[in-house]
């Protein structure tokens, strides 16, 4: 089946550091989405990308839709304690409603 | 506006018992997705509906699982009989065709199911 490779699996960073994570696939996607999941909650949409090359920001978060349409990255600048959680990428193929999900990147901020 | 509502938030049951999970969509949305999340397998799509019609149930593990949308705003996911390997967090998510982008799914808080 379709797969998204999300990396890294986990990140241990200091508060104030910048963070970068990415997703790649062998398939071409029409849409890339980035979600964040806090413990005990459902994933919450952070950024949606709809065009190849698109670069979109949401506060300290920036995400890009790769030119090849097979990858996307998410950057978080100047991380703060509330950034901890699991970040998921998801991609949509064609007009199918289904999303293909990455395995998640767990962000941990060292005290 | 109220988000996606799921109940119960936690369910502990014994193997062999019937379990019913409930989900209320965001008002005005017409697509519903049931997911299961485990440490081993991550987020798995079980089934999704559009306008109350099941579109793809290929992710439903086996006949023990069934899902319905008796009306446009409500859905149930039933497991009968339940087994320990069904223990997971079950999420529903809703989406809307009319808002232009069908891909933005809004998740509920999930139901944590433990089958003993």
**Amount of beta strand of chain B:** over 45%
Order of helices and strands of chain A: EEEEEEEEEEE
Give the terminus-to-terminus CA distance of chain B. 36 Å
Number of distinct helices of chain A: 0
Structure characterization notes:
The complex is a heterodimer of chains A (111) and B (116). Chain A has 111 residues and is mainly β. Chain A has no helices and eleven strands. In chain A, strands 2, 4, 5, 9, 10 and 11 form a six-stranded mixed sheet that branches. A five-stranded antiparallel sheet of chain A has the order 1-3-8-7-6, with no helix packed on it. The radius of gyration of chain A is 13 Å and the shape is globular. In chain A, 33% of the residues are buried. Chain B is mainly beta. Helix content of chain B is 0%, strand content 53%. Chain B is built from no helices and eleven strands. Chain B has strands at 5-7, 10-13, 19-24, 31-38, 42-50, 53-56, 65-71, 74-79, 88-95, 106-107, 111-115. In chain B, strands 2, 4, 5, 6, 9, 10 and 11 form a seven-stranded mixed sheet that branches. A four-stranded antiparallel sheet of chain B has the order 1-3-8-7, with no helix packed on it. Chain B is globular and about 40 Å long. The termini of chain B are far apart. The mean pLDDT of chain B is 91.
